[in-house]
Amino acid sequence: MKKLSVCCLAFFIAVSLILSPLVAGAATDKIKFGHVAPPFHGQSKGADAFAAYVKEKTNGRIDIATFPMGQLGGERSMAEQVQAGTLQIASITTAVMQNFVPQTGIMDLPYLFPNRETAYAVIDDPKVQEKLFSYLPKKGFIGIGWTENELRDFTNTKRPVRKPEDIKGLKVRVMEAAVFMDTFKQLGASPVGIPFPEIYNALQTGVIDAQENPLLTSILMKFTEVTKFVTLTQHTITECIIIVNPDYWASLSKADQKIFRDAAATAIKTNREVNEGLHNKLPKLGISIDEYCKKNGIEVIRLTNAEKEEFRKAVLPVYDLYREKIGGDLMDFFLGKVKEHRR
Fold first, then answer.
1. DSSP letter string over 234-297?
2. What is the pTM of this model?
3. What is the DSSP string of 96-146?
4. First to last CA, the chain
């Protein structure tokens, strides 16, 4: 009897030694989430909120490490890493995503949304997400939600810009995406696709005359030190799709997939709240955007609705160009949703 007990004990010890690595591996799933936003930006805070939500709801079973500021590579590189499965999650601008999934380029059409409120209502519509994200899986991505940069504005070193004609002839740095290039060509500018980190020096040395980024971004990156003319064109909103590797997604239970989708909703809510706060209180400076511009002699032009309409009319040919590239059905669907949710 004693011999049997010893044998049983030995057996259980052996089994536990064999299974313990497997149990330990199952206990914590450590994965990575990459993006390019700086740590203090709402997009970065949204990614952190995503990770915290998943960790809390899975009791630490899924532990997500976030990597801001392009630590894992540029957006195109990170998208390719997600495709390859070497990176589980990333948040990538639609401007970059359209290089993989042309249909996502619809989000970057100029003056698609008349205002922020309408943009949010459309983007948050479950049918819109379902429709747009349906194009992603066959390209190696699962879309589960959004993060956001901001509404994009126009800054330049030459002159105040109030009408489309004022942009003609300017050398403008744009995102390296066809829809941005085509938009500013239509406005008579000379678009230049240079990397984001090179914008300040390019403005300072006269390689470019202008750039288009949210005013918040331009201030935080100090572009407004060398571009004193700002026009709040708000020509498009930069949304980033939270993409997940399909194999990793398939490895998650249905319950965990729901947690990830709920985490994405938490991310965009946090993202927007933080950005709104930054408008009112810039980091380290403790003053609002308006106060900063007045203090630093930056001329800010707020377009009237009539002036915005002139810009919208000027870029309408871009819609004709992209109807074929994006697809008429998708464009009509989006335009219908904009009309439905117009605020």
1. ---EEEEEEEE-HHHHHHS-HHHHHHHHHHHHHHHHHHHHHHHHHHHS-TTT-S-HHHHHHHTT
2. 0.88
3. HHTTT-GGGGGGGSTT-SSSHHHHHHHHT-HHHHHHHHTTSGGGT-EEEEE
4. 81
What string of DSSP letters covers 152-212?
-EEEESS----SGGGGTT-EEE--SSHHHHHHHHHTT-EEE---GGGHHHHHHHTS-SEEE
Distance separating alpha carbons of residues 209 and 226, to the nearest angstrom? 10
User: Would you call 36 helix, strand, or coil by DSSP?
Assistant: coil
pLDDT one-digit tens code per residue, 127-154 = 999 999 999 999 999 999 999 999 999 9
Q: CA angle, 291 as apex, 290 and 292 as ends, to 5°? A: 90
| d(C-alpha 272, C-alpha 149), whole Å | 9
Domains of the chain: 29-341 (3.40.190.170)
